[in-house]
């Protein structure tokens, strides 16, 4: 980001290996009357092929037998976390073939990468498969499968932890939209445009990027969205021999999970949705709320910062917000030279936003801002390069930005440049620090845009789910929790009174008890954790 709607995964996919090191606060819980969900339901898959996924000339996609093999080491097996290292070495990989177009399943097909960590406990105690998605959109799932097993060993004993890289991500034909210089320009869009010429300049970069996506993605482009990911997940369910899907989705993963539940309510097992995206909300609502969410998170950081040595701010959170807005505006007007490059407002906004995803990063952000205010922009630029995965030669290695753009395009969740400009100026009143950059991160010039449709959940058809929301979550603000609770009155809601994006991997004892108990027994209650 500043491309980061739901983009928890862009931070989290690289950070899951270190999830055990995330700092947590002391915990307290309050509970209401309990509820119990039905059994996870593993076993032979039911006959049937939803959404037209009928047999192709090459055979039924649902009758595949994945050739599971130990994954080649991608470096994560060398993690300093013993639990993560052990899980990474046991991870199994395979390829699954699915229809390119579920409306024409007899036509072309595409391969997606799938992953499995077999249950670590006795076979007789196995509860089935537990699928996961870390968010994004645009992120692969490999590190999340490993991270879930490492973070939740009690759950990993009873479930096979599984997942797949959604189309256009990870090892499933990852989308590439441009070379290094174009990636630099898309990361440096001006989020606080002063006139029509600046809006036009942003629009021109978005158009070039969108054309690059279309040219490089080919026939996959119209088939990259969440609708296809839903059906791919159902093919995986069938191939694994499960009657129902059990699922842990965080951030955008909650949107994927909600869309699956709406499409296949009879195949929903135990669903944990953490970092809630309301599928019934339109793109303008979600972008506006996220803009406010990041500014709320910045104020929480600032209130902590001013009490600590080395903080560049003085006074309270309001004064810090005003100071940060001034600094970002200066970087927009006059980017700070660093050798042959320069740090601009877009890059700095990206770094500040990224470091708000976890309070464990606040001390590092405090140091970065201290050096920036002291006149040295090099550490901030290095932090941007690390986060964006920009190499010293100017290339971007394994960046997820292209997948994020195109999946949002396919879902109809992107803003035009004109829409982003209007909304950015509107949110600046309530979210002046990061709001404009957040809004512009939703902007795209889509070659194959999908419809922005609402997908409200039908509570009558759905079993009990477990919803988790953090009160000061920047990327998926807590305001969505109440709306989802109204759509799912039988769902249990765990509210984590804290900071940072999603609570599932934060090793908060209260959240851990609530989520693990639900996944292992089906029992869930409304709970407040702190």
Rg on CA atoms, Å = 22 Å
Beta strands, count: 13
Chain-averaged pLDDT: 89
- Outline: globular
Characterize the main sheet: 11 strands, mixed
In terms of DSSP E residues, the strand content is 15-25%
Strand order of the largest sheet: 1-13-12-11-8-7-5-6-4-3-2
Number of helices: 18
- Helical fraction equals 25-40%
Note poorly predicted spans: 1-59
The SS-based structural class is: alpha/beta
The end-to-end span amounts to 29 Å
Give a description of the structure.
The chain is built from 18 helices and 13 strands. It has 530 residues and is an alpha/beta fold. The strands form 2 sheets. The chain has an 11-stranded mixed β-sheet, with helices on both faces. A two-stranded antiparallel sheet has the order 9-10. A hairpin with a 2-residue loop joins strand 9 and strand 10 (341-343). Helix 12 crosses helix 13 (378-388). It is globular, with a radius of gyration of 22 Å.
What attributes does this structure have?
single chain, 530 residues, alpha/beta, two-stranded antiparallel ribbon, 18 helices, disordered N terminus
Summary of the model, kept short:
With 530 residues, this protein is α/β, with parallel strands linked by helices. Helix content is 40%, strand content 15%. Helix 2 (82-90) crosses helix 3 (142-151), helix 7 packs across helix 8 and helix 9 (283-305) crosses helix 10.
């Amino acid at each position: 980001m500043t491309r980061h709607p739901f983009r928890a995964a862009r931070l989290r996919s690289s950070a899951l290996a270190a999830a055990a090191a995330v700092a947590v606060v002391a915990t307290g819980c309050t509970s209401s009357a309990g509820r119990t969900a039905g059994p996870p339901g593993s076993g032979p898959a039911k006959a049937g092929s939803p959404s037209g996924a009928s047999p192709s000339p090459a055979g039924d996609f649902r009758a595949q037998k994945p050739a599971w093999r130990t994954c080649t080491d991608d470096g994560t097996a060398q993690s300093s976390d013993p639990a993560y290292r052990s899980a990474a070495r046991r991870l199994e990989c395979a390829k699954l073939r699915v229809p390119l177009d579920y409306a024409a399943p007899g036509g072309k097909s595409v391969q997606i990468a799938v992953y499995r960590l077999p249950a670590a406990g006795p076979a007789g105690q196995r509860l089935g498969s537990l699928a996961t998605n870390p968010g994004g959109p645009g992120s692969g799932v490999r590190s999340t499968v490993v991270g879930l097993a490492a973070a939740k060993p009690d759950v990993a004993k009873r479930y096979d932890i599984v997942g797949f890289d959604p189309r256009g991500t990870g090892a499933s034909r990852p989308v590439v939209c441009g070379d290094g210089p174009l990636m630099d320009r898309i990361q440096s869009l001006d989020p606080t445009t002063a006139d029509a010429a600046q809006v036009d300049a942003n629009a021109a970069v978005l158009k070039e990027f969108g054309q690059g996506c279309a040219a490089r993605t080919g026939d996959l482009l119209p088939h990259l969205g969440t609708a296809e990911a839903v059906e791919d997940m159902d093919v995986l369910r069938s191939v694994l021999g499960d009657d129902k899907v059990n699922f842990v989705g965080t951030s955008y993963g909650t949107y994927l999970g909600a869309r699956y539940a709406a499409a296949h309510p009879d195949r929903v097992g135990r669903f944990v949705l953490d970092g809630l995206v309301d599928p019934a909300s339109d793109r303008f609502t979600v972008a506006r709320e996220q803009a406010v969410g990041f500014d709320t998170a910045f104020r929480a950081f600032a209130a902590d910062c001013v009490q600590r040595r080395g903080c560049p701010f003085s006074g309270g959170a309001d004064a810090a917000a005003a100071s940060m807005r001034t600094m970002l505006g200066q970087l927009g007007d006059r980017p700070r030279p660093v050798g042959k490059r320069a740090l601009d407002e877009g890059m700095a906004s990206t770094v500040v936003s990224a470091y708000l995803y976890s309070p464990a990063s606040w001390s590092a952000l405090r140091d970065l801002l201290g050096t920036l205010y002291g006149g040295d922009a090099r550490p901030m630029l290095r932090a941007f390069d690390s986060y964006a995965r920009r190499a010293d030669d100017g290339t971007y290695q394994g960046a997820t930005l292209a997948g994020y753009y195109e999946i949002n395009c396919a879902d109809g969740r992107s803003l035009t440049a004109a829409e982003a400009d209007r909304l950015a100026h509107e949110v600046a009143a309530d979210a002046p620090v990061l709001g404009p950059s957040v809004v512009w991160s939703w902007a795209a010039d889509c070659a194959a845009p999908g419809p922005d449709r609402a997908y409200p959940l039908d509570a009558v058809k759905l079993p009990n789910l477990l919803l988790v929301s953090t009160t000061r979550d920047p990327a998926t603000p807590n305001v969505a929790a109440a709306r989802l609770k109204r759509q799912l009155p039988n769902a249990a809601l765990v509210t984590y009174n804290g900071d940072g994006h999603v609570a599932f991997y934060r090793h908060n004892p209260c959240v851990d008890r609530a989520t693990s108990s639900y996944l292992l027994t089906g029992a869930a209650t409304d709970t407040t954790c702190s």
